[in-house]
Amino acid sequence: MGLPQMWRLVWRFNSFRRTDIILQHLRMSKHTEAAEVLLERKGCAGVITLNRPKFLNALNVSMIRHIYPQLKNWEQDPETFLIIIKGAGGKAFCAGGDIRAISEAGKANQKIAQDFFREEYMLNNAIGSCQKPYVALIHGITMGGGVGLSVHGQFRVATEKSLFAMPETAIGLFPDVGGGYFLPRLRGKLGYFLALTGFRLKGRDVYAAGIATHFVDSEKLGMLEEDLLALKSPSKENIADVLDAYHAKSKIDQDKSFILEEHMDKINSWFSANTLEKIIENLQQDGSSFALEQLKVISKMSPTSLKITLRQLIEGSSKTLQEVLTMEYRLSQACMF
Q1: 3-state DSSP call for residue 161?
Q2: 173-200 tens-digit pLDDT
Q3: Structural domains in the chain, sorted by start
Q4: Which of 60, 65, 250, 294 is deepest in the core (most CB within 10 A)?
């Protein structure tokens, strides 16, 4: 073999080696991305685990792109009878969308800011229209995007460590992910109050407000999941029976009244106004310590966000979830750009 042929062989070998290394890195990258959310078939169920505990399981576009097609597959799979979604790490179900990544992408004029909201809302709609029973274990922090991954599903299980909030008016946004749909459908004007003030609900109050459908002691959550997975070809009623049984056995804060119960009549009155100015006037005229406290909170929020949010909820109260998500996508783009 001549020297030129030998050099050609060496060059080809090195090219193959470089290609192999690149492919290895791509495979590793894909695995790393996929590890942010675990998608497993267990027993009778498809199980989604949000797996970014260091970031309180904040939702990013990569996670959405893994969850959405798998949710659709399980929905069509005759061997999958329910879908369970939960968060890793014990501190959070999902603290919301990865706003920092979205904001940085928006500043850099990257398309990801558009893609994130569109694909997130598509996932929210898929959860809301899912034909299989969908069980969200909302243990720990559940805010913003985390609410969108849970509240539109058929069953939502809170624990004493659940922490719910829609804090968007404080950061120049609005309570999206279908907030315009589910918030005005909470009892009285509770949803309007939660949306405009970002008020936090904890533990059993998440159930009392209607955000969760069931309440279970956190130490029993693992057993609940095992019992759900062990069901044989369960119907929606079978699943509900298991959840009801665990809910009935829960004793934590069982006799505690809803944290806002004593204020509900006033909340219904104050937040029934159709303008932000009138809501503020109602709070000022009331003058009670609770009213003045809410006035102080609202005064720290983005005025634009408050106006958008009130209109969003009023409009959303008579729209379908899909119509609300379409409206919210348009709003998101107006706020981002």
Answers
A1: coil
A2: 999 999 999 999 999 999 999 999 999 9
A3: 37-336 (3.90.226.10)
A4: 294
